[in-house]
Design a protein that fits this description.
InterPro entries: Nucleotide-diphossugar_trans. With 770 residues, the chain is of the alpha/beta class. It has 20 helices and 27 strands.
Length: 770
Amino acid sequence: MKSSLLGALGSFVTVVLMYHILQLSARETYVRYLDSTELTNYTLLESLFSVQSYHHNSIEPESQPTHGTPTSLDLQEYDLDRLKRTFMIPIPSNISTTVIIKYDSLQLATAQLDSLLRQSMSPTAIYIVCSEKERPAISNLIREKEQEFRISNVIQPSVITKDNSAPWYSQIQQYDITTDFVVLLDNNRILPSKQYMEFVIRLLHSTTFRDTLVGTENSNVCQQTNNAHYVKLIQDVWVLRRDWFLALLLSRPASSVGNVSLDLYQTLQIPSILIPSDDSLTGNTNRKANTCFDESTMDSKVDGSVVFYMESQPTAAMEELMCHFGAQQTVYMVTNSAQVSSPACSTQKAIVQRKMVSSRTEFGVMVDQVEAQIVIYQENKKGFLHETGTATLIHLPASEHYVDIAWMTTLSTAALKHWNTPSVKLIITTSGSKKSAQVKRIFNSIKNADYLGDQVDISILMDEKSDGLTAKFVNNLQWSIGSKQIRHRISTVHPMQVFAEAWYPSSDHEYAVMLDDRVELSKSFYIWIKYNLLKYRYSQTTNKQIFGISLYSPRIIDTDPSGRLLLQSTTSPYLLQVPCSSGSLYFPQHWREFHDYITARLTDQAIVKRGSGNKHLFKDSLLTVSKTNRWINSWRKYFDEMIYMRGYVMLYPSIHSSYSTLYLNLNKKQKAMYPSVDKLYNVPLSRTLPTSLPDVQDLPVLDLHGKSSDINTLISKGLKLQRKFSACEPRNTTNQYDASDMLCPFNQLIQIPIEESTESVPIKSVSIYM
């Protein structure tokens, strides 16, 4: 007994000594390539993103003295936005990393190696743990990747022995690990995002997280909140310091419990912290998103039943949708096939009743009996489905690959009944010659997007300078889900005219997504639009002040007269009193009002020549609090005037989500002078959607300068300006998108010269008696 205790104590002392001996102390610093972009004042934007400007509000660098592991209360302060600031902290430039992966299949391993070799912090070495039988296939794969990525001696196979009691990663010898960090991937299905390894390694260089195991993957997705917090274990991917990994090798197999997190805690008392993530900073891009729903986010105003009509076994996404609906109300799965089974819902609250029908008439009777408001289906080959007086048919083709459709369950029945009401058009303008690569990029993103089975028309506007290759791309674009219209200009017109005349709505339910060839779209851009339209335009509670939906999440605000400034970050969608020109959807009523307003303003400018000395009917300089007031050749000048006087706002995605991104055409000299500028507009694209959207009254509101405000304040400020600009009393409370009350000129005393004459002017005297 005594000898056993002494032996255990000796092993523990050995591990602790090795841990301290193997600690590294690199202190070299460097300035990282930062995320930013700008169109004009690059020097300003360079200064905005200087490291010094973030020191007051960032995670402390490793050079600061350590204070042990953080408390749970400390971790609550670390949301994703604050965690991202680690990219501003200098860290050693020569950090080395060994990645160890476990082989499952050739196809999966190929995708995983591609993901690893494209990391922003490239691995120094990659070991693939495999069997002797799998080694030839892996050797061929290694040769392919070495040729593709022009590398050598980076990837090595490691053959598993028959010691089943040892952890799979223990096949790696201690002397093979000479790098600063070791990254373990538990299977080939794990695909880290491009910046994930760098993100975690930077966190491990901070005082707060240096002595913790940090990751984004956990078996309980409900634990993935907006803030960092302690968890029992991290799964799938682990980023370890070299001395931690060697300590695990020394302590096995007696202390091994099958998970790196638990083994590490038992061996070195290193706790595990789960951190929030987004698409660009996740440990596994294959992780199924939005599978955990907070019941408090569900719309309680659900009336009527939901029917799912299935002619074949539903897809996994469709089964999940049934279960989420079934947790709120009774759901009927109707089928004409005995082979179609009910979904196996994980929650006991979900009620999905299966019913068989054998004819179109029987289906119609059943829908009437259950008072169905919504009928969702994948296919209708049997012709059983038909329009009824009450139920709305929602077609979700099984052939479509959806990232997620469970967001539908957060919408009210009133909103879902308008599923087929909005008609969305894509308006794309091309500009100049030699832009075929840009045109190809946006076309590819449009073709690869998910459209939920909807009909979407597309209109392409080519300018007079479009070259032959651009015209070829436009002509060859295959568009099967709606009409395709091409227009080509024969002479140069004003850019303001090109934008404003690109679309005019034919109904109050026709919407336009305004795009140009500088933009690239997320695969989920249309779903983001659909979700927000149903939530904020067709629910029982709406806000007429919203004039559109942005696809883009901006990083700067361009309306401040002093110049472009960083926009304050928000963790939820928000309302901003600024239009977006990097991909956005506009509402028809507000667009017509804009047409009326800009027509009157431009007509006034055309009648009275600028610089002639004659007075305009309206003030030329109106919105002096905005930089756009000086943009006399831009549609923004007049659009910003109108939305300011009306108190209108556009809906934007949160800082962590963007469904479009913008590319700048900087030349080599500009890129060299302003290395941080290129990505202020080129933001990461999101594929996943928010689990839920805030109610319209809970959306944060920002004014035209990006400062916190509220709708009533914006309306009040707009009315004040309108009274200075227009003689008519504002009709904001009863306004029906009529611009006329903003376009009433004030009375003016106009002097008309009389020709000189030698004759005296006749005078007549009149006596008046009171």
